[in-house]
Amino acid sequence: MRVLILIAFLACACWEAARAAKLVPGKAFDRLITIWLENQDYAKVVLEPSIADLKRSGILLTRFYAHTHPSQPNYLAAIGGDYWGNDHDEMIHIPENVSTVVDLLDYRNISWAGYFEDMPGPGYMGNYSDGQTGNGGWDYVRKHNPFVSYESIIMEGERLLALDSFRAFQRAFKEKEVPQFVFMTPNMMNDGHNTSNKFAADWAHKFLQPLLDPKAFDEKTLIMLTYDESEDYSQPNHIVTLLLGSAIPPALKGTEDSTFYTHYSLLSTLQNNWILPNLGRYDVGANVFRFVAEASGYTKNKEPANAASVNNSISYPGLLHTEPVKRLGIPVPNDRLIGAGGLPILDSIKKKWSSAIKKGEETPYDGSGNVYDGDNPPVYSPPRAN
Ligand SMILES: *[C@@H]1O[C@H](CO)[C@@H](O)[C@H](O)[C@H]1NC(C)=O
Ligand SMILES: *[C@@H]1O[C@H](CO)[C@@H](O)[C@H](O)[C@H]1NC(C)=O
Ligand SMILES: *[C@@H]1O[C@H](CO)[C@@H](O)[C@H](O)[C@H]1NC(C)=O
Ligand SMILES: *[C@@H]1O[C@H](CO)[C@@H](O)[C@H](O)[C@H]1NC(C)=O
Ligand SMILES: *[C@@H]1O[C@H](CO)[C@@H](O)[C@H](O)[C@H]1NC(C)=O
Questions:
Q1: 48-107, pLDDT tens digit by residue?
Q2: 110: CA distance to ligand 2 center in Å?
Q3: Of 157, 184, 271, 332, which has the highest C-beta tally within 10 A?
Protein backbone atom coordinates (compact mmCIF):
# COMPACT_ATOMS: atom_id res chain seq x y z
CA MET A 1 0.00 0.00 0.00
CA ARG A 2 2.73 2.44 1.03
CA VAL A 3 4.64 1.69 -2.15
CA LEU A 4 1.53 2.35 -4.21
CA ILE A 5 0.97 5.65 -2.48
CA LEU A 6 4.59 6.61 -3.04
CA ILE A 7 4.36 5.72 -6.73
CA ALA A 8 1.13 7.68 -7.07
CA PHE A 9 2.76 10.65 -5.35
CA LEU A 10 5.84 10.56 -7.58
CA ALA A 11 3.80 10.18 -10.75
CA CYS A 12 1.69 13.11 -9.68
CA ALA A 13 4.69 15.29 -8.80
CA CYS A 14 6.36 14.55 -12.16
CA TRP A 15 3.18 15.31 -14.02
CA GLU A 16 2.83 18.63 -12.23
CA ALA A 17 6.46 19.49 -12.93
CA ALA A 18 6.18 18.57 -16.61
CA ARG A 19 3.06 20.65 -16.89
CA ALA A 20 4.61 23.65 -15.18
CA ALA A 21 7.75 23.48 -17.30
CA LYS A 22 6.06 23.45 -20.69
CA LEU A 23 4.96 26.91 -21.65
CA VAL A 24 2.93 27.09 -24.85
CA PRO A 25 4.03 30.27 -26.67
CA GLY A 26 1.36 32.40 -28.33
CA LYS A 27 1.47 34.67 -31.38
CA ALA A 28 1.02 37.93 -29.46
CA PHE A 29 1.17 36.89 -25.79
CA ASP A 30 2.21 33.93 -23.68
CA ARG A 31 -0.17 34.70 -20.84
CA LEU A 32 -3.54 36.45 -20.54
CA ILE A 33 -4.89 37.68 -17.21
CA THR A 34 -8.42 39.09 -17.31
CA ILE A 35 -9.68 41.07 -14.32
CA TRP A 36 -13.38 41.89 -13.98
CA LEU A 37 -14.89 44.99 -12.38
CA GLU A 38 -18.61 45.68 -12.03
CA ASN A 39 -21.44 47.77 -13.43
CA GLN A 40 -19.99 51.00 -14.83
CA ASP A 41 -20.70 53.04 -17.92
CA TYR A 42 -17.95 53.69 -20.44
CA ALA A 43 -18.50 57.46 -20.37
CA LYS A 44 -17.91 57.64 -16.61
CA VAL A 45 -15.04 55.14 -16.36
CA VAL A 46 -12.82 56.94 -18.88
CA LEU A 47 -13.02 60.08 -16.70
CA GLU A 48 -11.57 58.31 -13.65
CA PRO A 49 -7.97 59.50 -13.07
CA SER A 50 -6.81 55.97 -12.18
CA ILE A 51 -8.14 54.59 -15.46
CA ALA A 52 -6.74 57.51 -17.45
CA ASP A 53 -3.35 56.85 -15.86
CA LEU A 54 -3.45 53.12 -16.70
CA LYS A 55 -4.43 53.97 -20.25
CA ARG A 56 -1.09 55.70 -20.81
CA SER A 57 0.62 52.32 -20.87
CA GLY A 58 -2.09 50.36 -22.65
CA ILE A 59 -4.72 50.19 -25.39
CA LEU A 60 -8.24 51.45 -24.65
CA LEU A 61 -10.91 49.46 -26.51
CA THR A 62 -13.47 52.18 -27.23
CA ARG A 63 -16.32 50.02 -28.57
CA PHE A 64 -16.61 47.04 -26.23
CA TYR A 65 -20.15 45.87 -25.39
CA ALA A 66 -21.50 43.56 -22.72
CA HIS A 67 -24.39 41.25 -23.65
CA THR A 68 -27.24 41.82 -21.23
CA HIS A 69 -28.12 42.44 -17.56
CA PRO A 70 -27.63 41.52 -14.74
CA SER A 71 -24.07 40.32 -14.05
CA GLN A 72 -24.15 36.55 -14.26
CA PRO A 73 -24.92 36.04 -17.98
CA ASN A 74 -22.00 38.27 -18.96
CA TYR A 75 -19.54 36.17 -16.97
CA LEU A 76 -21.02 32.93 -18.38
CA ALA A 77 -20.68 34.24 -21.94
CA ALA A 78 -16.97 35.02 -21.63
CA ILE A 79 -15.99 31.40 -21.00
CA GLY A 80 -18.80 29.45 -22.70
CA GLY A 81 -19.59 31.30 -25.95
CA ASP A 82 -23.26 31.84 -25.04
CA TYR A 83 -25.21 32.91 -21.95
CA TRP A 84 -28.03 30.41 -22.41
CA GLY A 85 -30.82 32.98 -22.04
CA ASN A 86 -29.76 33.72 -18.45
CA ASP A 87 -31.40 36.85 -17.03
CA HIS A 88 -30.78 36.51 -13.28
CA ASP A 89 -28.12 35.99 -10.57
CA GLU A 90 -29.50 32.84 -8.94
CA MET A 91 -27.44 29.63 -8.63
CA ILE A 92 -27.49 27.74 -11.92
CA HIS A 93 -26.08 24.53 -13.41
CA ILE A 94 -25.16 24.19 -17.07
CA PRO A 95 -25.23 20.56 -18.29
CA GLU A 96 -22.03 18.59 -18.64
CA ASN A 97 -22.30 18.35 -22.43
CA VAL A 98 -21.61 22.11 -22.66
CA SER A 99 -17.90 22.83 -23.13
CA THR A 100 -15.96 25.97 -22.26
CA VAL A 101 -12.62 27.70 -22.71
CA VAL A 102 -11.25 25.16 -20.23
CA ASP A 103 -11.70 22.32 -22.75
CA LEU A 104 -9.91 24.35 -25.42
CA LEU A 105 -6.97 25.18 -23.14
CA ASP A 106 -6.69 21.67 -21.71
CA TYR A 107 -6.61 20.31 -25.26
CA ARG A 108 -3.39 22.27 -25.85
CA ASN A 109 -2.08 21.72 -22.30
CA ILE A 110 -2.18 25.46 -21.63
CA SER A 111 -2.30 26.03 -17.87
CA TRP A 112 -5.20 28.09 -16.50
CA ALA A 113 -6.82 29.16 -13.23
CA GLY A 114 -9.67 31.24 -11.86
CA TYR A 115 -8.93 33.44 -8.82
CA PHE A 116 -11.81 34.96 -6.87
CA GLU A 117 -11.12 37.29 -3.98
CA ASP A 118 -12.40 35.98 -0.66
CA MET A 119 -13.35 32.58 -2.06
CA PRO A 120 -13.05 30.61 1.19
CA GLY A 121 -11.11 27.69 -0.32
CA PRO A 122 -10.27 25.98 -3.62
CA GLY A 123 -13.28 24.64 -5.48
CA TYR A 124 -15.86 26.34 -3.22
CA MET A 125 -19.31 26.02 -4.80
CA GLY A 126 -21.47 27.98 -2.33
CA ASN A 127 -23.54 30.96 -3.39
CA TYR A 128 -21.51 33.54 -1.48
CA SER A 129 -19.12 33.99 1.37
CA ASP A 130 -18.26 36.63 3.90
CA GLY A 131 -14.61 37.57 3.54
CA GLN A 132 -12.18 40.27 4.55
CA THR A 133 -14.67 43.14 4.63
CA GLY A 134 -16.99 41.31 7.03
CA ASN A 135 -20.02 42.54 5.15
CA GLY A 136 -22.04 39.37 5.53
CA GLY A 137 -21.91 37.49 2.25
CA TRP A 138 -21.05 40.45 0.05
CA ASP A 139 -17.43 39.57 -0.57
CA TYR A 140 -17.15 36.39 -2.67
CA VAL A 141 -20.22 35.76 -4.85
CA ARG A 142 -20.87 32.79 -7.12
CA LYS A 143 -22.58 34.93 -9.77
CA HIS A 144 -19.16 36.50 -10.54
CA ASN A 145 -17.44 33.12 -10.88
CA PRO A 146 -18.72 31.54 -14.09
CA PHE A 147 -16.58 28.39 -13.78
CA VAL A 148 -18.58 26.80 -10.95
CA SER A 149 -21.82 26.95 -12.95
CA TYR A 150 -20.47 24.69 -15.70
CA GLU A 151 -20.79 20.99 -14.83
CA SER A 152 -18.07 20.18 -17.37
CA ILE A 153 -15.70 22.05 -15.06
CA ILE A 154 -16.89 21.06 -11.59
CA MET A 155 -17.27 17.34 -12.37
CA GLU A 156 -13.49 17.06 -12.81
CA GLY A 157 -11.58 17.41 -9.56
CA GLU A 158 -8.44 18.85 -11.09
CA ARG A 159 -10.46 21.58 -12.80
CA LEU A 160 -12.41 22.42 -9.68
CA LEU A 161 -9.16 22.80 -7.73
CA ALA A 162 -7.92 25.35 -10.28
CA LEU A 163 -10.51 27.77 -8.83
CA ASP A 164 -9.10 29.50 -5.78
CA SER A 165 -8.73 32.76 -3.87
CA PHE A 166 -6.59 35.84 -4.52
CA ARG A 167 -4.18 34.51 -1.89
CA ALA A 168 -3.43 31.59 -4.20
CA PHE A 169 -2.81 34.10 -6.99
CA GLN A 170 -0.38 36.09 -4.84
CA ARG A 171 1.51 32.88 -4.00
CA ALA A 172 1.72 31.90 -7.68
CA PHE A 173 2.81 35.44 -8.59
CA LYS A 174 5.63 35.38 -6.04
CA GLU A 175 6.84 31.98 -7.24
CA LYS A 176 6.56 33.06 -10.91
CA GLU A 177 4.08 30.25 -11.49
CA VAL A 178 1.05 32.17 -12.69
CA PRO A 179 -0.79 29.98 -15.23
CA GLN A 180 -1.06 31.04 -18.87
CA PHE A 181 -4.76 31.92 -18.73
CA VAL A 182 -6.12 33.57 -15.60
CA PHE A 183 -9.61 34.89 -14.83
CA MET A 184 -9.87 37.13 -11.73
CA THR A 185 -12.80 38.69 -9.90
CA PRO A 186 -12.17 40.98 -6.90
CA ASN A 187 -14.64 40.97 -4.01
CA MET A 188 -17.87 42.97 -4.13
CA MET A 189 -16.23 46.01 -2.56
CA ASN A 190 -13.09 46.12 -4.71
CA ASP A 191 -14.94 45.39 -7.96
CA GLY A 192 -17.14 48.43 -7.38
CA HIS A 193 -20.42 46.52 -6.99
CA ASN A 194 -21.04 47.74 -3.46
CA THR A 195 -18.75 50.78 -3.56
CA SER A 196 -18.26 53.22 -6.43
CA ASN A 197 -16.71 53.79 -9.83
CA LYS A 198 -13.79 55.64 -8.21
CA PHE A 199 -13.26 52.97 -5.55
CA ALA A 200 -12.96 50.18 -8.15
CA ALA A 201 -10.76 52.23 -10.47
CA ASP A 202 -8.39 53.13 -7.61
CA TRP A 203 -8.34 49.53 -6.41
CA ALA A 204 -7.47 48.29 -9.92
CA HIS A 205 -4.71 50.90 -10.28
CA LYS A 206 -3.10 49.81 -7.02
CA PHE A 207 -3.58 46.09 -7.60
CA LEU A 208 -2.04 46.30 -11.06
CA GLN A 209 1.17 48.17 -10.15
CA PRO A 210 3.20 45.06 -9.21
CA LEU A 211 1.79 43.15 -12.21
CA LEU A 212 2.85 45.94 -14.58
CA ASP A 213 6.41 46.03 -13.28
CA PRO A 214 8.65 45.05 -16.23
CA LYS A 215 10.19 42.33 -14.06
CA ALA A 216 6.84 40.90 -12.94
CA PHE A 217 6.62 38.16 -15.57
CA ASP A 218 9.30 36.49 -17.64
CA GLU A 219 6.85 35.83 -20.47
CA LYS A 220 4.88 38.24 -22.66
CA THR A 221 1.81 38.92 -20.55
CA LEU A 222 -1.45 40.59 -21.60
CA ILE A 223 -3.63 42.02 -18.83
CA MET A 224 -7.24 42.65 -19.82
CA LEU A 225 -9.08 44.87 -17.36
CA THR A 226 -12.79 44.83 -18.11
CA TYR A 227 -16.27 45.43 -16.68
CA ASP A 228 -19.09 42.89 -16.72
CA GLU A 229 -21.84 45.32 -17.81
CA SER A 230 -22.84 48.98 -17.79
CA GLU A 231 -24.69 50.64 -14.93
CA ASP A 232 -27.34 52.34 -17.05
CA TYR A 233 -29.82 49.72 -18.32
CA SER A 234 -31.44 52.17 -20.75
CA GLN A 235 -28.30 52.46 -22.90
CA PRO A 236 -26.61 49.87 -25.12
CA ASN A 237 -24.25 48.05 -22.75
CA HIS A 238 -21.07 50.05 -23.47
CA ILE A 239 -18.16 49.24 -21.14
CA VAL A 240 -14.46 50.01 -20.78
CA THR A 241 -11.86 47.38 -21.54
CA LEU A 242 -8.17 48.23 -21.21
CA LEU A 243 -5.35 46.06 -22.55
CA LEU A 244 -2.14 46.33 -20.53
CA GLY A 245 1.06 44.49 -19.76
CA SER A 246 4.32 43.50 -21.40
CA ALA A 247 2.57 42.04 -24.47
CA ILE A 248 1.47 45.51 -25.61
CA PRO A 249 3.73 46.65 -28.48
CA PRO A 250 5.54 49.82 -27.30
CA ALA A 251 4.24 51.85 -30.26
CA LEU A 252 0.65 51.12 -29.22
CA LYS A 253 0.93 52.29 -25.62
CA GLY A 254 -1.55 55.07 -24.93
CA THR A 255 -3.58 54.37 -28.08
CA GLU A 256 -7.20 53.46 -28.74
CA ASP A 257 -8.75 50.65 -30.77
CA SER A 258 -12.30 51.30 -32.07
CA THR A 259 -13.03 47.77 -33.35
CA PHE A 260 -16.41 46.37 -32.18
CA TYR A 261 -15.88 43.84 -29.37
CA THR A 262 -18.00 41.84 -26.93
CA HIS A 263 -17.15 39.40 -24.13
CA TYR A 264 -16.96 36.69 -26.85
CA SER A 265 -13.84 38.48 -28.12
CA LEU A 266 -11.94 37.00 -25.19
CA LEU A 267 -12.59 33.50 -26.62
CA SER A 268 -11.79 34.40 -30.22
CA THR A 269 -8.60 36.21 -29.14
CA LEU A 270 -7.40 33.19 -27.13
CA GLN A 271 -8.16 30.91 -30.09
CA ASN A 272 -6.30 33.19 -32.47
CA ASN A 273 -3.27 33.61 -30.23
CA TRP A 274 -2.79 29.93 -29.38
CA ILE A 275 -4.25 28.29 -32.52
CA LEU A 276 -7.07 26.69 -30.55
CA PRO A 277 -10.10 24.87 -31.96
CA ASN A 278 -13.48 26.55 -31.35
CA LEU A 279 -16.65 25.91 -29.32
CA GLY A 280 -19.00 26.12 -32.34
CA ARG A 281 -20.97 28.93 -30.66
CA TYR A 282 -20.81 32.75 -30.56
CA ASP A 283 -17.06 32.55 -30.05
CA VAL A 284 -16.84 32.07 -33.82
CA GLY A 285 -17.15 35.40 -35.63
CA ALA A 286 -16.33 37.55 -32.58
CA ASN A 287 -13.60 40.07 -33.40
CA VAL A 288 -10.04 39.38 -32.24
CA PHE A 289 -8.20 42.18 -30.37
CA ARG A 290 -6.61 44.16 -33.17
CA PHE A 291 -3.00 44.03 -32.02
CA VAL A 292 -3.28 40.24 -31.68
CA ALA A 293 -4.90 39.91 -35.13
CA GLU A 294 -2.07 41.99 -36.56
CA ALA A 295 0.57 39.79 -34.93
CA SER A 296 -1.03 36.61 -36.29
CA GLY A 297 -2.03 37.91 -39.72
CA TYR A 298 -5.75 37.40 -39.02
CA THR A 299 -7.87 39.52 -41.37
CA LYS A 300 -11.46 38.52 -40.62
CA ASN A 301 -12.43 41.23 -38.10
CA LYS A 302 -15.51 43.14 -39.23
CA GLU A 303 -18.33 45.34 -38.01
CA PRO A 304 -21.40 43.18 -37.17
CA ALA A 305 -24.09 43.86 -39.79
CA ASN A 306 -26.72 44.51 -37.10
CA ALA A 307 -24.58 46.34 -34.50
CA ALA A 308 -26.64 49.53 -34.58
CA SER A 309 -29.96 47.77 -33.88
CA VAL A 310 -28.86 45.95 -30.75
CA ASN A 311 -29.26 47.39 -27.27
CA ASN A 312 -27.91 44.48 -25.19
CA SER A 313 -30.11 45.28 -22.21
CA ILE A 314 -32.40 42.25 -21.96
CA SER A 315 -31.69 38.55 -22.43
CA TYR A 316 -32.84 36.47 -25.37
CA PRO A 317 -34.69 33.14 -24.72
CA GLY A 318 -32.75 30.09 -23.51
CA LEU A 319 -32.32 27.36 -20.91
CA LEU A 320 -31.72 29.77 -18.02
CA HIS A 321 -34.44 32.35 -18.65
CA THR A 322 -36.78 33.06 -15.71
CA GLU A 323 -39.89 33.28 -17.88
CA PRO A 324 -41.15 29.78 -18.75
CA VAL A 325 -42.32 30.90 -22.22
CA LYS A 326 -38.78 32.01 -22.99
CA ARG A 327 -37.16 28.76 -21.95
CA LEU A 328 -35.40 26.76 -24.69
CA GLY A 329 -32.94 23.86 -24.76
CA ILE A 330 -29.19 24.30 -25.24
CA PRO A 331 -28.64 24.91 -28.96
CA VAL A 332 -26.54 22.43 -30.91
CA PRO A 333 -23.05 23.80 -31.67
CA ASN A 334 -22.31 24.32 -35.34
CA ASP A 335 -19.60 21.84 -36.34
CA ARG A 336 -19.02 23.48 -39.75
CA LEU A 337 -17.55 26.71 -38.42
CA ILE A 338 -13.87 27.64 -38.58
CA GLY A 339 -12.81 29.86 -35.69
CA ALA A 340 -10.18 32.56 -35.23
CA GLY A 341 -7.56 29.87 -34.60
CA GLY A 342 -8.10 28.70 -38.19
CA LEU A 343 -9.42 25.42 -36.81
CA PRO A 344 -12.79 23.64 -36.61
CA ILE A 345 -14.77 22.79 -33.50
CA LEU A 346 -13.00 20.86 -30.73
CA ASP A 347 -13.31 17.16 -31.53
CA SER A 348 -14.70 16.20 -28.10
CA ILE A 349 -17.57 18.70 -28.54
CA LYS A 350 -18.42 17.23 -31.92
CA LYS A 351 -18.54 13.75 -30.36
CA LYS A 352 -20.72 14.85 -27.42
CA TRP A 353 -23.25 16.48 -29.74
CA SER A 354 -23.05 13.93 -32.56
CA SER A 355 -26.70 12.81 -32.33
CA ALA A 356 -28.05 16.37 -32.66
CA ILE A 357 -25.46 17.18 -35.34
CA LYS A 358 -26.43 14.08 -37.36
CA LYS A 359 -30.07 15.11 -37.23
CA GLY A 360 -29.07 18.46 -38.76
CA GLU A 361 -30.78 20.36 -35.93
CA GLU A 362 -31.10 24.09 -36.52
CA THR A 363 -28.59 26.31 -34.73
CA PRO A 364 -28.28 30.03 -33.96
CA TYR A 365 -24.50 29.93 -34.43
CA ASP A 366 -23.53 31.05 -37.95
CA GLY A 367 -20.11 32.58 -37.40
CA SER A 368 -21.36 35.96 -38.69
CA GLY A 369 -20.35 37.94 -35.62
CA ASN A 370 -23.87 39.41 -35.46
CA VAL A 371 -25.10 40.33 -31.99
CA TYR A 372 -28.39 39.50 -30.33
CA ASP A 373 -30.52 40.51 -27.37
CA GLY A 374 -34.06 40.08 -26.07
CA ASP A 375 -35.46 42.48 -28.66
CA ASN A 376 -33.42 40.96 -31.52
CA PRO A 377 -33.30 37.26 -30.61
CA PRO A 378 -31.01 34.82 -32.42
CA VAL A 379 -32.31 33.29 -35.65
CA TYR A 380 -32.02 29.49 -35.89
CA SER A 381 -31.17 27.94 -39.26
CA PRO A 382 -29.61 24.73 -40.64
CA PRO A 383 -25.86 24.57 -39.87
CA ARG A 384 -23.73 26.20 -42.54
CA ALA A 385 -20.02 26.87 -42.98
CA ASN A 386 -18.76 30.41 -42.35
C1 LIG B 1 -27.35 33.78 -4.43
O2 LIG B 1 -26.71 35.05 -4.39
C3 LIG B 1 -27.26 36.03 -5.26
C4 LIG B 1 -26.45 37.30 -5.10
O5 LIG B 1 -25.11 37.09 -5.33
C6 LIG B 1 -28.71 36.29 -4.94
O7 LIG B 1 -29.25 37.15 -5.91
C8 LIG B 1 -29.48 34.98 -4.92
O9 LIG B 1 -30.79 35.21 -4.49
C10 LIG B 1 -28.81 33.96 -4.02
N11 LIG B 1 -29.51 32.68 -4.13
C12 LIG B 1 -29.71 31.88 -3.09
C13 LIG B 1 -30.41 30.59 -3.38
O14 LIG B 1 -29.32 32.17 -1.96
C1 LIG C 1 -0.97 17.23 -23.67
O2 LIG C 1 -0.34 16.44 -22.67
C3 LIG C 1 -0.65 15.06 -22.79
C4 LIG C 1 -0.05 14.35 -21.60
O5 LIG C 1 1.30 14.70 -21.42
C6 LIG C 1 -0.12 14.53 -24.12
O7 LIG C 1 -0.48 13.17 -24.27
C8 LIG C 1 -0.74 15.34 -25.25
O9 LIG C 1 -0.19 14.94 -26.50
C10 LIG C 1 -0.51 16.82 -25.07
N11 LIG C 1 -1.28 17.56 -26.08
C12 LIG C 1 -0.75 18.54 -26.81
C13 LIG C 1 -1.68 19.18 -27.80
O14 LIG C 1 0.39 18.93 -26.66
C1 LIG D 1 -24.51 45.35 -1.61
O2 LIG D 1 -25.44 45.66 -2.66
C3 LIG D 1 -26.67 44.99 -2.59
C4 LIG D 1 -27.52 45.42 -3.77
O5 LIG D 1 -26.97 44.98 -4.95
C6 LIG D 1 -27.39 45.32 -1.28
O7 LIG D 1 -28.57 44.54 -1.20
C8 LIG D 1 -26.45 44.98 -0.11
O9 LIG D 1 -27.06 45.37 1.09
C10 LIG D 1 -25.12 45.68 -0.25
N11 LIG D 1 -24.25 45.23 0.82
C12 LIG D 1 -23.36 46.00 1.42
C13 LIG D 1 -22.58 45.38 2.53
O14 LIG D 1 -23.16 47.15 1.09
C1 LIG E 1 -32.82 49.28 -24.33
O2 LIG E 1 -33.61 48.28 -23.73
C3 LIG E 1 -34.15 48.65 -22.48
C4 LIG E 1 -34.85 47.43 -21.91
O5 LIG E 1 -35.76 46.88 -22.84
C6 LIG E 1 -35.07 49.86 -22.67
O7 LIG E 1 -35.52 50.29 -21.39
C8 LIG E 1 -34.30 50.99 -23.34
O9 LIG E 1 -35.18 52.06 -23.62
C10 LIG E 1 -33.65 50.53 -24.63
N11 LIG E 1 -32.80 51.59 -25.13
C12 LIG E 1 -32.70 51.89 -26.42
C13 LIG E 1 -31.72 52.98 -26.76
O14 LIG E 1 -33.35 51.32 -27.28
C1 LIG F 1 -27.12 17.69 -23.14
O2 LIG F 1 -27.44 17.46 -21.77
C3 LIG F 1 -28.76 17.83 -21.42
C4 LIG F 1 -28.90 17.67 -19.91
O5 LIG F 1 -28.48 16.41 -19.50
C6 LIG F 1 -29.75 16.97 -22.20
O7 LIG F 1 -31.06 17.37 -21.90
C8 LIG F 1 -29.49 17.11 -23.68
O9 LIG F 1 -30.31 16.23 -24.39
C10 LIG F 1 -28.04 16.82 -24.01
N11 LIG F 1 -27.82 17.09 -25.43
C12 LIG F 1 -27.20 16.22 -26.23
C13 LIG F 1 -27.15 16.55 -27.68
O14 LIG F 1 -26.69 15.21 -25.82
A1: 999 999 999 999 999 999 999 999 999 999 999 999 999 999 999 999 999 999 999 999
A2: 10
A3: 271
Residue 377 in any domain: the answer is: no
- Give the separation between CA 226 and CA 60, rounded to whole angstroms: 10
The finding on whether 109 has its CB within 6 A of some atom of ligand 2 is yes
Q: What is the mean pLDDT of residues 39-55?
A: 97
Residue of 152, 330, 351, 355 to mutate, ligand 5, most atoms within 8 A of C-beta: 330
Asked whether 143 lines ligand 1 (CB < 6 A), one says yes
Q: Of all protein residues, whose CA lies closest to atom 6 belonging to ligand 5?
A: 95
Q: Is position 366 within any domain? A: no
Indicate the number of domains in the chain: 1
- Nearest residue (by CA) to ligand 4, atom 8, is 234
pLDDT score for 132: 86
Q: Tell whether ligand 1 has an atom less than 6 A from the beta carbon of residue 322.
A: no
Q: What is the CATH number of the domain that holds 64?
A: 3.40.720
pTM of the model as a whole = 0.94
Range of the domain at 252: 2-359
- Which residues, judged by CB distance below 6 Å to any ligand atom, belong to the binding site of ligand 5? 95, 97, 353, 355-356
Classify residue 210: in a domain, yes or no: yes
For residue 98, give the ligand 5 atom closest to its CA.
Answer: 1
Determine which residue's CA is closest to atom 6 belonging to ligand 4. 234
Residue 114 to residue 137: CA distance in whole angstroms: 20
